[in-house]
Amino acid sequence: MTLNEVTDTLVAVHREYQDHDADRVTPDVRPLADLEDFDSDFIPEIVRRVASDLGYPLPKGTRVKNIYVEDGRKLTIREAAKNFLNKYAPTGAQV
Question: How far apart are CA 7 and CA 20, in angstroms?
């Protein structure tokens, strides 16, 4: 699992969540600030979906944390992907 794989998967999943303007979803978009159709309630579902799509589903009972905010700053998808790797990547992933 690499940063590029996680970023690409996050972009693809976010495009599915967009009711309109899915082409606006890029690695440099900030979902919590820039995407009208994105709601923070989707975060656990998206994190679990990305983990599963990458072949490493999260164990039942795993508490999902917000990967889209750090130190009060709303992150880009690329930055959120790095948080995902740091929090949920299996041992040996390329962070």
Answer: 20
* Structure-block tokens of residue 52: 């599963």
Q: 29: closest CA among 77, 62, 67, 85? A: 77
Query: What pTM value is reported for the model?
Result: 0.90
pLDDT digits (tens, 9 = 90+) for 66-88: 999 999 999 999 999 999 999 99
Residue of 75, 16, 22 whose CA lies nearest to 46:
16
Rounded CA-CA distance 13/5 in Å is 12
Considering the domain delimited by 3-88, tell me its CATH architecture. Orthogonal Bundle (1.10)
**DSSP labels for 21-73?**
-GGG--TT--HHHH-TT--GGGHHHHHHHHHHHTT-PPPTTPPPP-SSEETTE
Q: Where are the domains of the chain?
A: 3-88
